[in-house]
Amino acid sequence: MATLQKYNIDLKIYSSYNFVKMLSIINARPFINGKIEKATAINVNNGRIVSIGEPIYNELLDAKDNIVAAGYIDIHTHGGFGKDCMEASKDAIETIAK
């Protein structure tokens, strides 16, 4: 499996003990190019994925065979700039689209 360095992906890892700078996420099933890969380790340094494969850091986070998707963001919106899509007016849609 190739590394994700070329994809320039940011990953923020938060825990009850502060931000971890160097971390290997083990037993992770990464979502890459539209496919869920088999369980492996995702190595993170300073919030960035540096490689996928064998764990390289002592700090481990067990993903317990769950899917890990970097940068997964829900982009839906109900409006903006004081307008709401539910107004269903031309003015509201044009304002939101700016």
Under CATH, the homologous superfamily reads Urease, subunit C, domain 1
Main sheet specs:
6 strands, mixed
Fraction of residues in β-strands: 25-35%
Q: How many H/I helical runs?
A: 1
Give the name of the CATH architecture. Roll
The beta-strand count equals 8
Low-confidence sequence ranges? 1-17
Structural class: mainly beta
Q: How far apart are the first and last residues' alpha carbons, in Å?
A: 41 Å
Question: Would you give the CATH topology?
Answer: Urease, subunit C, domain 1
Dominant shape:
elongated
Oligomer: single chain
Q: Round the mean pLDDT to the nearest integer and report it.
A: 79
Highest-level CATH class: Mainly Beta
Which key phrases capture this entry?
mainly beta, 8% helix, 98 residues, 6-stranded mixed beta sheet, two-stranded antiparallel ribbon, single chain, disordered N terminus, 35% strand, elongated, Urease, subunit C, domain 1
Could you characterize what this model shows?
Helix content is 8%, strand content 35%. It is mostly beta strands and 98 residues long. The strands form two sheets. Strands 1, 2, 3, 4, 5 and 6 form a six-stranded mixed β-sheet that branches. Strands 7-8 form a two-stranded antiparallel sheet. β1 and β2 form a beta hairpin. It is elongated.
Give me the secondary-structure topology.
Elements: E1 22-32, E2 35-36, E3 40-45, E4 48-53, E5 60-62, E6 67-68, E7 79-80, E8 83-84, H1 90-97
Parallel strand pairs: 1-5, 1-6
Antiparallel strand pairs: 1-2, 1-3, 3-4, 7-8
